Amino acid sequence: MHPILSNRRTLVLYLAIWLAVGLLIEIPFIFSYKSQWVAFLLSDLPLNIIFAFICLSSYYLCRVFPIKTTQWYNLLSFFLVAAGIAACIEFVIGYGWVHLIDSLKIAQTISPLYEPWIAGIFSTLILIFLLVASMHYVIIGFEISSETERQTFELKLLAQDAELRALRHRSILTSFSTALIRSAL
């Protein structure tokens, strides 16, 4: 299972970071379009959370394409394609969501305000996906390191246990041989 999804506190922290970043991104829009700040928040914050979950898929790509065994140009190609697909999915969802917000007539129509920003938003989504993928490689590195430490500790315990058994057997053999020598005398 995904390490972020498997731990409730980690998931809450992950989503809180996404919300905080989403709010920071909203600041220029809120100041530029004061009358539509509610519509912007209603449209963008849920989309940020959706993209947060879409970006979690990069973990599985990181598992399939380990850094140590995958050529850098293949790695770059795979992740650029995946980031492009993720950005397209976000755009399709976003298009529908923004038009739904517009249809609710909460504020003036906001969908035309996004049009000049489409290339920038798309590029940012790709960069964010790649950044999250990099974060997943770090998480995988920590998992591998922890597993290696655990295995090393278990091997040390097994070696100590084997050494104790050998000492016990040697002690038993020494006692037995001493008893045999005494009985022979």
Question: Would you mind describing this structure in some detail?
Answer:
This protein is mainly alpha-helical. It contains six helices and no strands. The longest helix has 67 residues, at 118-184. The mean pLDDT is 90.
Question: What's this model, at a glance?
Answer:
The chain has 185 residues and is an all-alpha fold. It is 83% helix and 0% strand. α1 (8-32) packs antiparallel against α2 (37-55) and α2 packs antiparallel against α4.
Q: What key attributes describe this structure?
A:
185 residues
- Encode the helix/strand succession as letters: HHHHHH
Helix percent band: over 70%
Mean pLDDT: 90
β-strand number: 0
Kindly, what is the distance between the CA atoms of the first and last residues, rounded to a whole number of angstroms? 69 Å
Structural class: mainly alpha
Shape: elongated
Number of helices: 6
Content of β-strand: under 5%
Characterize the main sheet.
none
- Runs with pLDDT <50, length 5+? none
Rg from Cα: 29 Å
Q: What is the fold's blueprint, element by element?
A:
Layout (H helix, E strand, L loop, with lengths): L7 H25 L4 H19 L2 H7 L7 H32 L7 H4 L3 H67 L1
